[in-house]
Amino acid sequence: MWNVVEEPWLLLFVALITLGVVMLFREGPSGPPRRWPLLIPLAIALLAFGLDRFIQTDRERLEATLNRALRFAKTHDFSDFNDIFAPDYSDAFHATRTDLRRRCESSLAIADIERISKRRLQWTIETSTAQCDLSVLVRLRGRQGSYAGSQGLYFVEVRMRFDKQPDGRWLIRTVELVSLNNQQFDWGGVP
User: Fold this and answer.
1) 23-48 tens-digit pLDDT
2) pTM (2 decimals)?
3) Do residues 162 and 126 make contact, with C-beta atoms less than 8 angstroms apart?
4) What whole-number distance in Å separates Cα of residue 61 and Cα of residue 189?
5) Which domains does the chain have, with CATH numbers?
């Protein structure tokens, strides 16, 4: 069933059905048709858009964090780094969030990412943790240095784990590189 907080379509469908019912029965026994019953489907439609716009679900917050991380990788803007990655971040190659930041700063400084496109995204969301299996298509521009001649498309699969913070934000706790161009890959292969 659709979640009315994430998508407005179910309530808009209910508003449409309600409009049909109101149009059938809005005429009184005598006199001209009443206009106030038309406010009922309008109120339902406004509720649909209001819920969708003003209430963020966990999935929407997770996707916002993921999009910020992808934007960070493309723009190399490290100002939001601590707002994306959890203070207790660790993975197989980085013991701390600071180690990851150093690796990202050195690797992204020589990589010129033109575009990152999501190909597959699968969420597993629990109460205070979530996991994302993500496949992206990364397009690099040719550049001098370690990535010279590596211009082209790369299919990257990543597994990310998120923790929900007490204030409701979701932060990335772990990032595992799963594959690069359908070949098993991990952080050890990143220059």
Assistant:
1) 877 766 666 777 788 889 999 889 88
2) 0.75
3) no
4) 31
5) 9-54 (no CATH), 58-189 (3.10.450.50)
